[in-house]
Design a protein that fits this description.
Helix content: 25-40%
Number of helices: 10
Bound molecules: adenine
Number of domains: 2
Largest sheet: 5 strands, parallel
CATH class of the largest domain: Alpha Beta
Number of strands: 10
CATH superfamily of the largest domain: SPOUT methyltransferase, trefoil knot domain
Order of helices and strands: EHEEEHEHEEEHHHEEHHHH
Strand content: 15-25%
CATH architecture of the largest domain: 3-Layer(aba) Sandwich
Radius of gyration: 24 Å
Distance between the termini: 62 Å
Shape: elongated
Amino acid sequence: MIQFTVLTLFPEMFAPLQESILKRAQEAGLVKIKFVNFRDYATSKHKNVDDVPYGGGAGMLLKPEPIFAAVRDLPEPGARRRVILLSPQGAVFNQKKAEALSEQEELVFICGHYEGFDERIRELADEELSIGDYVLTGGELAAMVMIDAVARLIPGVLGEDTSAQEDSHSISLLEYPQYTRPADFEGRQVPEVLLSGHHAMIKRWQRKESLRRTFLRRPDLIKAVIFAAEDYLILEELVLEHEEIAAWQALWQHLCPPPKRRRK
Ligand code: ADE
C-alpha cells in the first residue's frame, strides 16, 4: 500500500489516474490518492494564492502562506513520508528514482502553477524533481507521471509479480522486438527463430536484439550494462553487422581493449 497526497490548485486535472490499472489498484486498496487544494488555505477575501515578485519581473509567484498551511495541516506522517516539489529545476526523475520512492509509505507532491513559487516554499520539500528538460505549465502532469511510474512498482498493482522487474529501464537494456500471431501479416514475417521452439536460441536472439536496440537507440545507456560472458560473441556479430557505424568499432575497442603489455 502506498499513499499519494497531491497539493494542487487543479485536482480535476488528475482524472487520468481514475482509469485502467491505477483505477483497479485504488479499488483493491493498494494505492490511495488524496488531493488537497491549497486554495482552501488562502486567507484573503479573494482566496489569492499568488502575487507579484519582489524586484519586478514577469508573471505571478505562488505565495508561501497557503502552501505552508496546507502542509502543516496534513495528518501526522508515518515513518516513511517524502515531500516532493515538482519543478524543472529538480533532479531528473528516472526508473531508479521511481524504485526508491516506491519504498515509501506516503509521497506528498507539491504542484506549482503559473510562473513559479516563492523561494521559501522549497523548505517544505525533502527533494525537488523534474520529469525532463522542458517547462510545463504546472507540476500536475509531472506528478501524474511519477504517481504512475511509482504505483506500478507496488506489488499486486500489475498482474504478474515479475512484469515490473523485466521492463527496459530496470535492466538498463531496451526490450527486444516482440510479436504475436499471425506469423505472416500481409507478408511481414515473424523472425523464424521465434517459431522454432528452440528455447536457448530464442533467448540468445532476444539478448542480441536488446543489445542492438540499445546500441542504436540509446548508446548512453550502454555504460550501465552488465555484460555476460556470452555477450562478447553477440557483440562481435553486431559490430560486423553494423560496420557502417564507426562508433561501434570504438565501442568494441572500449569493451574489449587489447590486452595491456606488462611493464618489464
Ligand atoms: N513544472 C514545470 N515544468 C516541470 C518539469 N519539467 N518537471 C516537473 N515539474 C515541472
